[in-house]
Write a structure and sequence with these properties.
The protein is α/β, with parallel strands linked by helices and 210 residues long. It has one domain: LmbE-like (Rossmann fold, 3-Layer(aba) Sandwich). It contains six helices and seven strands; from the N terminus they run E-H-E-H-E-H-E-H-E-E-H-H-E. The protein has a seven-stranded mixed β-sheet, sandwiched between helices. Helix 1 crosses helix 5, helix 2 runs antiparallel to helix 5 and helix 3 crosses helix 4. The longest helix has 15 residues. It starts with 5 loop residues before the first strand and ends with a strand.
């Protein structure tokens, strides 16, 4: 499966992709895959006091570049945070426009059980746009009432370290529990333990095309 060369990560907000599959991104890039990343909201209304309104756009550019994603493979939209459901048709049409340009073999997007309103919108429209690709739902446990660990991707310690370094670019998000390196290592360790390896990230199989 990791021989796949074209990967697309759909991130409702500008850190969801790194949180959900940052280690996997690091491994895929190490193995020569081409990765594209779409962030739908820079959440300007949620930027903490003391930062410029465009700070999250700056941070996602730095974070994805830290992982090794070329800047030309990063697409950033500025839909209003917590209101993606109001523009879901526009989002779908934009994904359909990008589909022939990217032609992804695997699409990573939020889980079907993610209860955040923006995340559920990207799940639904991503599924519609890329139903002919393999689709894996990534894990954001603070938003998931349930999560099916259908698929595991084995990772090494340096993949987790790359994920943490990328997330540390998000200065606006410091202090959040899910940004804590100890939490990130712990979750990767739990998922690795489930498959008798050191570290892993787990995914919900939404569509598998072999």
């Amino acid at each position: 499966m990791l021989n796949t060369k074209r990967i697309l990560v759909l991130a409702p907000h500008t850190d969801d992709g790194e949180l959900g599959c940052g280690g996997t991104i690091a491994r895929y890039l190490e193995e020569g895959a081409e990765i594209f990343y779409i962030a739908f909201s820079t959440a300007e209304a949620s930027v903490p006091d003391g930062f410029p309104s465009h700070q999250l756009e700056t941070e996602v550019r730095t974070a994805t570049l830290s992982l090794g994603i070329p800047s030309e493979n990063l697409f950033i939209y500025k839909y209003q945070v917590r209101k993606l459901n109001y523009v879901r048709q526009e989002i779908l049409e934009e994904l359909i426009r990008l589909r022939p340009l990217i032609q992804p073999d695997i699409v990573f997007l939020p889980s079907s059980n993610d209860i955040h309103q923006d995340h559920s919108t990207i799940y639904s429209e991503g599924l519609r746009a890329f139903k002919h690709s393999t689709i894996l739902g990534y894990e954001l446990i603070w938003n998931n009432l349930a999560f099916s660990t259908d698929c595991f991707i084995k990772l090494d310690a340096h993949h987790i370290e790359q994920k943490i370094l990328a997330l540390q670019e998000y200065k606006t998000q410091e202090g959040r529990h899910y940004m804590d390196p100890e939490f990130i290592y712990s979750l990767a360790k739990v998922r690795g333990t489930q498959i008798s390896t050191q570290y892993a990230e787990a995914f919900e199989v939404i569509r598998l095309i072999i």
